[in-house]
Design brief:
Elements: E1 5-7, E2 10-13, E3 18-23, E4 32-39, E5 45-51, E6 58-59, E7 68-73, E8 78-83, E9 92-100, E10 117-118, E11 122-127
Parallel strand pairs: 2-11
Antiparallel strand pairs: 1-3, 3-8, 4-5, 4-9, 5-6, 7-8, 9-10, 9-11
Length: 128
Amino acid sequence: QVQPVDSGGGLVQAGGSLRLSCEASGRTFDSYAVAWFRQAPGKERDVVAAISRSGTLTYYPDSVKGRFTISRDFTKNTVTLQMNSLKPEDTGLYYCAWRYEAFYPDSYYYRENDYLDWGQGTQVTVSS
């Protein structure tokens, strides 16, 4: 079974930026809704951005709205999370997740239980 491959994490100072990528090796993303989740130490895994199959619908929780941007590049078969104005509370393990949506209306999904396929996670650390 093909899993998402997430990458791009690292260490950055508060106020800085990072760009995370989710790739689908051997599979096209066209029929998948995708989301990024974050898990901070000792906390539950929460969504930070979600995008529909077409890329026209997006969702952000209030905690990242205006700072994070999720987008899809169909030519490169990737979904990107651009994170700006990073804060120490953005620190955590970031996961890409996808779900097959070829026969459903275009929509985003922001609950962990909505997704079956997950990347291995990429660490983001924001220092104060």
